[in-house]
Amino acid sequence: MTWYDSLLQQLADGLVLGSFYALVALGYTMVFGVIKLLNFAHGDLYMTGAFAGFGGLSLVSGVLGAGWLGIFVAMLLAMLAVGCLGVVIERIAYHPMLAAPRLSILITALAVSLVLQNAALSLTGGQYTAFRTDLGFGGLSLGNLFISYNQIVLVATAAVLMIALELFVSKTLYGRAMRAVAIDKDMCRMLGINVSAVIAITFFIGSGLAAAAGTMAGAYYGSIWYFMGFLIGLKAFTAAVIGGIGSITGAMLGGLILGLLESFGTHIPFIGSEWKDVFTFAILILVLVFKPTGLLGKSEVERM
Amino acid sequence: MTMRTILKLIASTAALHLAASGPVLAQDEPITIGVQAPTTGSEATYGKDMLNAIGLAADEINAKGGLLGGRQITLVSGDTACDPQQSVNAASRLASQEVVGVVGGYCSGATQPTLKIYGDANIPFVIVAANSTQLIPANPGNAFMINSTGADQAKTAVDFFAGKGIDKLAIVNQGDAYSQDLANLTRDAWKAAGHEVSAFEYVNKGEQDFSALVNKIRGSGAQAVFWTAYYADGGLLIRQLRQRGFQGTIAVGDGSNSPKLFDIAGRAAEGVYAFSNPTADFLPAAKQFISDYQAKFDTAPGPYAPLAYDGMQLMAWAIDKAGSTDADAIIKALGSADGKEWLAGPISFTPQHTLARSNFVVLEGQDGKWTRYQP
What we know:
The complex is a heterodimer.
Chain A: H1 3-35, H2 42-64, H3 68-94, H4 102-124, E1 129-130, E2 139-142, E3 145-148, H5 149-171, H6 173-183, H7 185-190, H8 195-221, E4 223-224, H9 228-243, H10 248-265, H11 276-290
Antiparallel strand pairs in A: 1-4, 2-3
Helix pairs in contact in A: 1-5, 1-8, 1-9, 1-10, 2-3, 2-4, 2-8, 2-9, 3-8, 5-6, 5-8, 6-8, 9-10, 9-11, 10-11
Chain B: H1 2-20, E1 31-37, H2 44-63, E2 73-79, H3 84-96, E3 101-104, H4 108-120, E4 125-127, H5 135-138, E5 143-145, H6 150-163, E6 168-173, H7 177-192, E7 196-202, H8 211-219, E8 224-227, H9 231-243, E9 249-252, H10 260-265, E10 273-276, H11 287-297, H12 305-322, H13 327-335, E11 338-342, E12 345-348, E13 361-366, E14 369-372
Helix pairs in contact in B: 1-2, 2-12, 3-4, 6-7, 12-13
């Protein structure tokens, strides 16, 4: 394998990984933008989404098969279900705390994370669940470079979801309301915007995107378990910070950058794969030290 | 499932106990044996399997009239979750319940810290599955390993790869005591045999994407990959290796020889080799055991069930031989195990309390299940 092939291969792999990070990072950043909360339960919504997608696929696979069509429908079902779960969590756990000090709601988020994780632990007995699909191993072979069809579909789906979100936020009435609420909640209330509804929509979309990533990850990697959301939650958070937390395009960019960094980080000479995560989180620290607002974030006086 | 099995176990031993007992004398007191196994977490499949097999052995002993002239065995279980911190809690709890002995021990990383606890409390411990060589220096003298150690497995692995005509080998572990130990031992033995280790890698537990690692392995020109850790992540790695067109030999250590590997890796697991402790299917003496186990638990015994069953039987044998529940006498009796034939073969111990022979076999994945590999 020449260095050139190897570079392209890592670029392709980095894009796949980055798509997952970006989809999950979007939820972090949207919620932070609207209610200034680091929703630590977000990684677990990704996990819940994977299980919801698994359930959805067992429902529809009889009719639609377990190929991409079945997975796509299962993914939509999972997005709907986990989106609603996100709204319920916001109503029950976060809404009553909105006026409380910021630290209290942060702790509530950690509690929600533990509730979701342990609920999944007791429901599955902590076992790995095989996510069986009919996806093949086929792909495009260009010399030593190999890109599977699954990877292509996955990145394309992620791209479509992100473009749809961008259009929703920039072009629609609700999107505009969302941006307005992010800037000044009280002013919005005075102008007659239903702030609670906007927050609910934000949670619905953010959780739905996490569920989409979870279902796709389950189908792509082939197994799911209750703890799968932890590491990706942490990394998506890193991606959101790198891109500038609160910024939607920043989250997409941060996710892709992180995916590429990880993919290339494994190949730095003299540094083995065991240093991959050290590398990733060192970047997080560097960003926080030299550009605390992230690549695309706007500076703001008060930060958590 | 776990709770139900445990309850069933308690209910059946209790029922037997009631049936056998007249007026309660000290002589009729049950003998409490601790079972240390991961019944939740990533290795729960193996843990429940061990618990089942140990329960089956205890029930059989109780049905034959118990130990020391009529005392019944009662089991208490401690869940280690394959986690060093949780295993310390579980072991402390077992020790405080004044168990006569402990049988179990899966996941060397989670077993190692419990050795000191049982050592301090002077409780005889039969380790049925955990087999890292790092357990040997940590053993205060009360523990006995009835599974062959990592060194034996490394030797089996080196012989196997060399027999396949392989020169460049990639070894991947997960950084825990068990898989790292096996990886290091195999690397050293492979180099000593004059071959090349083209990649020696490590992955995080719970990581799902191994694409960068797969590229590195392919780029290193490895002809074979040896995964030394557990099936859940191993299944993912095998899948991604084959998805990316790795054509070479893939073999996995005994932590990965579960039937569940086929669930996770799917078709990619076809033709994968595994080094295995003696599993029930490959033991001529285990026919009765398989049908009893199947009848009782409605599922086939997993890879560590015979060893777990033997562990309980060996402990019972040692208690009877010691003639009392005195810890020192039981430890002495265990040490004198004389090569008597058990389900998984003869048991006798080296001066370090490890099994005095290698019991590894090579398996091959065919049509979604393991079959004995014949070179």
